[in-house]
Amino acid sequence: MKRAGRSQIGGTLLFLLITAVVLGGMTWASVSTLRLAKTNVKERHHAAVYKTLLQMDSYVGGILNREVERPYTDYRAFHTKRRVLRSEIGKWESDPGLVELPSDILEQGPRHDWIELYFQLANGVLTSPQIENDCEDWPTVFPEVNVAALRRARFAWEWFEAVYPKSILNDRITSNVSETAPFEDSDQKKRESQAKVIIHLAQGESSKVDSSVVQDYILRAQRLRATQSKHKSTPACEDLEVAGRNFPNMLKPVTLSSATQGGDDAVNIECGEFNRPSWLTVPGSDIQKLTFQRQCSVDANVFYQGFVGDWPLLRKELLNQTKDELLRELTAIFNHPVDSGVDLVPISSVNPMHVTDNETALSWLPVKLSVPYSEARLAGVAWHSVRGVLIASWLAAICVLAVAGWGVRNLIALTERRMQFAYAVTHELRTPLTTLQLYTDMLAADLVPESSKQDYLQTLNRESLRLSGLVEGVLEYSRLENQKVRLNPVNTDAQSILQIIRETLEARCKEAGVQAVTRNHTDDSQAMCIDVDIVNQIAGIVIHNACRHARGSEGSQVLVKLASEGNRLNLDVIDSGPGIDRSDARNIFKPFRRGHGADAAAQGGIGLGLALARDWASLLHGKLELMARHHGELGGAHFRLTIPTVIRA
Fold this sequence. Notes:
Elements: H1 2-69, E1 78-82, E2 86-88, E3 91-93, E4 98-102, H2 104-108, E5 115-122, E6 125-127, H3 138-141, H4 147-163, H5 166-178, H6 188-205, H7 211-231, E7 236-239, H8 240-246, H9 258-261, E8 266-274, E9 278-281, E10 288-298, E11 301-310, H10 311-334, E12 343-346, E13 367-370, H11 375-444, H12 453-481, E14 490-493, H13 494-512, E15 515-521, E16 527-530, H14 532-550, E17 557-565, E18 568-575, H15 582-585, H16 600-603, H17 609-619, E19 623-628, E20 638-644
Parallel strand pairs: 15-17
Antiparallel strand pairs: 1-4, 2-3, 5-6, 5-11, 7-8, 8-10, 9-10, 10-11, 12-13, 14-16, 17-18, 18-20, 19-20
Helix pairs in contact: 1-7, 1-10, 1-11, 6-7, 11-12, 12-17, 13-14, 14-17
């Protein structure tokens, strides 16, 4: 039927549309969830790394803050200072004399083991408070001098002299200090403007620049610069005599005149912040040292101060303070132990223009933090965190599709059944109704001869019975569908059941001109309790179909066998007809379905017989099966009804 075909196509398209919407939505949701989970893992990873970078920056910043506070005079082995006021009874007076004091660096040594050498560069002359010609005698003169620190300083100084000519070293330090450091201006608005320019320039160099990475780096650099500015001492003023004593042979000579003897004139001393460090390396050697430097001035005269650090020792200190905590956090992120892979790796510079390639760079050291990182590993962690939700969601989606498919299938089946019902009923009702109308009109018009009226009346009676049977079949099917049929089991035996079925068989076979054959393979003494009427109705339907298909053939017959297997009763109906086509076998028990070669006019029926028989068999807690489309002996169809021998209502 064309409408049924269109219904199937429409239902299939509807289900495909639902499937596409559900699967598309689930795919989008799954991809978005995985992307969000991966982003969350990345953010946790970035937060752990950023926290470690802050700790390392804070450590380096604390060291630089203390060094920024160091007086400029500490960079000389000895410096001159006015004597303090002294008190006598009733009055204060000053001591006009000067006193020579040793440098704190000389006495105490560096505050950290990784700081090897302090130096000062003025007028092209490089000196150190730790390197003097008579330093070997200092332990005797000054017992408190840190001899070990002096020896490390001497070794570093000799290393410089061996690998760096003084002219090259002087130029190197001068150029490093003179480079303009970002965010050097203390004004916040100007620093923000500089940061925006740097981000813009960095993005211009690479289309893959993450501005948040650059912004994080800039914020850390600004924070460290701000802390140094807070710790930097205010410009000091010293009289010319003290300044001249503190810088012999290093600045332009300070001339003492009569006007300055009284101390009215003074020299303005100002020291800046420590600039970004730079590497001192030797080609072909693994020795790496860091130089930190700052710019100072005495009025218009500029000089430089700084210190040299041993990078392996500084690296060890930084990792000892932060590595264990970072590894614990990474272990929590990756859901498995992470005990290695964290290290500090030198880079060429700490320039914001190039930090985009090193998002883990420290803000004030030319190094980056190397941590375990892998896109595949992060994706695995993300999948592990959301796999339960995704699997449950996909299972739910599959269940929804299954329910939707089942619903669409039932809807299509219901639509087809209604159309088949309407087609079958109207088709089968047309013939008896037409006959009834024609014959009653002829009888009413007295057009039928008196001798033929009896035949007409018999035809009318037969057609009315046929019509009644059609209606009764539809009603019975409706009652079965609504579960309104009640069982009426009675005590009986196999012989009695076979006798009732034999009567039905012989009557149907006589009408169709077919030979009736029965066989009993049961124990007559076996007691049974079944609904005989329903069993007879099932047998009647199957026998009626067998007679219709077997008639007209030579030696046609219908065989009914009754056998028992334990507590089950088998009723077999076999005919000698042409059998059942393979295409009809799949739908033979569906309501309102008839064989492709069925002729309504010749055979009648609306396709409800076997559907009713199957439902009645289920009502008896049994089943009706097509055992063979072509029986091996008779050649026709072979049906079997199997029911329990004892049925309870």
